[in-house]
Design a protein that fits this description.
By secondary structure, the chain is of the alpha/beta class. Helix content is 38%, strand content 17%.
């Protein structure tokens, strides 16, 4: 019996394997990494955050540079792959609407909207365009409550709902949609959050006559993890941390080495200048900040709506940009909770093959134990 990972279908988009590479800014996931994942049958994702600073064609730190850089990356990725590529766009960005508009103009396959509540029509596009455009829209949430608010608002105001939902659990990297108290709550797990989101979405699937896939992310590290979360009803998974430790990742070697070298104790929760907790790898820069050191900076343009640059102890955009290009003494790396398990850099192809093999082994083991209970995998 040949056990296969199921396909992931988002409307007319069909990914051969149900793995979405998480969007990682600033500059960590660009056209290089996204195209490599797409070429292996998954969904590659470009992060739109801070591209104007790290993208090689420009050094300007302004809104126009960021928008031009996103357009450039989308065109570059289309030269490298015919696979599915998405764009991750933070709702909290001050140029959010412009980024969405460009991504749609450039015919990105799908947008993943997170770090805020996308309660209005993204990009200022009209209702008719929203319903007819080929670009799919996925929303990133951390609770059934958040998903419900988005879907009820879209249904009522636009007679339309998003095409996919990414549920990010508390073990994810970067900025987190949880309070520090929630992060300490043992009941706040992806496994507990996911079923509630699945149930919440069902009425909207019936109302709008379409399948709305649920993608689970945050702490998923192995193929066995993929199998277990899909057995709980997820249609696919989002993985970010594992893809940093690949040759094709767009970050510098020094950035990737932080993942290889870190220990479990190095992975910490920080208070971001955005007013959100975040998960990162502690280094000298972060340790100084956590001790109360202020790092002076100027703000050429207010890139994040929620950042009070006048009182912020450091510029998070500058710190993440420095880290991306390898200046680790002047920045730091976000990561998921399992980054310490990484011990080597591999190719995207090798990583995908490993995940598939691990998934298959987990599925075969489950079949041996309970042959009648195995709805996730496809059998040929």
């Amino acid at each position: 019996m040949n056990i296969k990972l199921p396909e992931l279908k988002i409307g007319e988009l069909i990914a051969k394997i149900p793995i979405i590479q998480g969007g990682m800014g600033v500059g960590i996931s660009r056209s290089g990494l996204a195209s490599a994942v797409a070429n292996e049958g998954g969904i590659g994702v470009i992060s739109s955050v801070g591209l104007g600073v790290v993208q090689s064609t420009t050094s300007k730190k302004d809104r126009a540079a960021n928008l031009n850089a996103l357009r450039y990356e989308i065109r570059e990725v289309k030269k490298k792959t015919n696979g599915i590529v998405g764009i991750n766009i933070m709702v909290a960005l001050s140029d959010y609407d412009d980024l969405v508009k460009i991504a749609i103009e450039e015919k990105a396959d799908i947008l993943f909207l997170g770090a805020g509540m996308p309660l209005k029509i993204p990009g200022g596009i009209d209702l008719d365009t929203l319903r007819k455009q080929t670009t799919k829209i996925g929303v990133i949430v951390s609770s059934a409550r958040a998903a419900s608010l988005i879907f009820r608002t879209w249904s009522r105001k636009f007679n339309h709902v998003p095409d996919a939902v990414v549920v990010e659990g508390p073990e994810a990297g970067g900025h987190l949609g949880f309070s520090r108290e929630q992060l300490e709550d043992k009941k706040q797990t992806l496994e507990n959050i996911l079923p509630a989101v699945i149930e919440m979405i069902k009425p909207f699937e019936e109302q709008f006559g379409k399948k709305i896939p649920i993608i689970a992310g945050g702490g998923i590290f192995t193929g066995e993890d993929i199998y277990k979360i899909m057995e709980l009803g997820a249609d696919g998974v989002q993985m970010g941390t594992r893809f940093v430790a690949t040759h094709e990742c767009d970050a510098s070697p020094a950035f990737k080495q932080q993942y290889v070298d870190c220990t479990k104790e190095d992975i910490v929760i920080i208070d971001s200048p955005l007013g959100l907790p975040g998960r990162a790898i502690a280094n000298t820069y972060l340790k100084d900040v956590m001790k109360g050191k202020k790092i002076p900076f100027s703000c050429p343009w207010k890139c994040l709506r929620t950042c009070d640059y006048k009182t912020a102890p450091y510029c998070i955009a500058e710190a993440l940009t420095n880290a991306c290009v390898g200046l680790m003494d002047h920045g730091f790396a976000f990561s998921g909770s399992n980054a310490y398990l990484i011990d080597t850099i591999v190719s995207v192809k090798e990583l995908i093959e490993t995940l598939i093999a691990e998934f298959t082994a987990a599925a075969e083991k489950a079949l041996q134990l309970e042959p009648e209970l195995n709805p996730t995998v496809s059998h040929t």
